[in-house]
Amino acid sequence: MQTQEDPRWDDLALLLALGRSGSLKRAAEVLGVNISTVARRLDAAEARLGVHLFDRTPDGTLPTATAERLLPYLEGMEQAAADFSRALGGIETEAEGRVRLAAPPGVVDHFLVARLPALLERHPRLHIELLSSVDYVDLHRREADLALRTRRPTAGDFVAARLATMPFAVAASPSYAAELGRLRSPARARWVCWGPSLSHLAESSWLTSQVDDAQIVFRCDSMTALIEATRASVGAMLVPAAYTQLHGLAEVALTAKLRASVSEIPANQLWLVGHRALRDVPRIAAVWTWLREQFAH
């Protein structure tokens, strides 16, 4: 009774080359060995598998009926091995390629763009696409790979990390802050504020409840425009406290009573959100780590 062993990978390549070429010589050329090596390996393979697969005839090395039944499986295994190699080659092992990051315009303009060179120096094969908008991109539809948001998602297969919790402060240009001194009442200052489309935000609602419309001398829906107006001494502005550290801005000193009132405005939170399935992809992980570093202090 013949014993049968599991096939070896090199046996399968040999049998496939013989089945396609029908000749020991041509199979030897395909495999890069000599004819005697092919003949010896065929004998050994047939002995291991316990079946007769090829007949040596004057017309060539012809497959038996058994070999003809097995050849489609060999071709399938060859295709699977090729697919495996392609898939392996496509697996990202280094941080490279495009990462689409959605973030509020103020964060993009004042905290991210100037710091991008350090990220790209660390990972020179990365390409960053910043989606700067107050509107939420749809992560479900893969409109972005990562997003910075003011609220943690409550649905979807996402991972999230809180980057910052920022209470509000009053910012002004250094000269206007000095002019105001320790501010006792919002009515004693000129203000810049969100325009109508963002007037529902908590800081805008607080300000409009504290001062007459005449005190709000500039309104705009652009965070950058509001900050530039503040730098230009157009007025003071309610901002998350981190913005008071920007060049050309200073935090306005407040009396204890006014500080307590401002502290009633819900603090801004900033969340980093991404797809759970992509979290460990090197390019996503690299940007995730970098973002956490930027807001660590």
Mean pLDDT level: 90
Q: Would you state the CATH class of the largest domain?
A: Alpha Beta
The percent range for helix content is: 40-55%
Counting structural domains, the number is 3
Q: Which series of helices and strands comes N to C?
A: HHHEEHEHHEEEEHEHEHEEHEH
The fraction of residues assigned to DSSP E strands is: 15-25%
Largest sheet: 5 strands, mixed
Number of helices: 11
CATH architecture of the largest domain: 3-Layer(aba) Sandwich
Low-confidence stretches: none
Shape category: rod-shaped
- The end-to-end distance, rounded to whole angstroms, is 76 Å
List how many beta strands DSSP finds: 12
Strands ordered across the widest β-sheet: 4-3-5-12-6
Q: Would you tell me the structural class of the helices and strands? A: alpha/beta
State Rg.
34 Å
Report the CATH topology name of the largest domain. D-Maltodextrin-Binding Protein, domain 2
Short structural description:
The protein is α/β, with parallel strands linked by helices and 297 residues long. It has helices at residues 9-21, 24-31, 35-49, 65-90, 105-112, 116-122, 174-180, 202-210, 223-231, 256-262, 282-294, and strands at 54-57, 60-63, 97-103, 126-132, 146-149, 158-166, 168-172, 191-194, 216-220, 237-240, 250-251, 268-275. It contains 11 helices and 12 strands.
